[in-house]
Fold:
Amino acid sequence: MSWTYSENIHRKETVENLAKRFLELLRAIAAPDAVSMPQLNWTRPPDAEIRSALSHIPEATEYGVEDFYPLSPAQQGILFHALFAPNSGAYCQQFDYRIKGTLNVPAFKHAWQTVIERHQTFRTAFVWDGLAEPVQVVFRRADLPIKEFNLEELEPAAQHDGLNRLLIEDRNAGLALSRPPLMRCALIKVADDEHHFVWTCHHLL
Structure:
């Protein structure tokens, strides 16, 4: 860790004490069984309220609900800002990877769907309408959308422009926070042995 500060505001001793205390707490967290984490003070909403909140979400009927639980404080803040400015895209994360070599597309799609089925996080959505406080809901299943695009017939400059356009359109599309999964993927073919893989997910996850 590196600490920088303004000598016009803080004394050196103050920052040294802060750094020392920070490291002490970090070591305490890292030590096995050294720190007991605070428990969330949360009252489970009545099942009737949960059913009502989920009634307008088709996936709840189609796939069923596995579990639900409260949001962490960080998630509460992110959800508030996401709902306050839904079109800002601030919490919509987009990752673009280049895959070189022959790609078995069906196997690639199957692998990603397996990840969704294995990990609850990727089957989670967020519900707040009609509830005293929002909850995150784990669905029993969620189908990952993977769109395919083919730009291999275009000249390099046109490919570059087309890829940028697809990335911008994807970022602007947003994600429905109450509909799982809060992520989507795209495969963009630019040559027989080269794809761009775009993974978009919400920071709430």
Q: What stands out?
A: The helical segments are 12-30, 47-54, 58-63, 73-84, 105-118, 156-173.
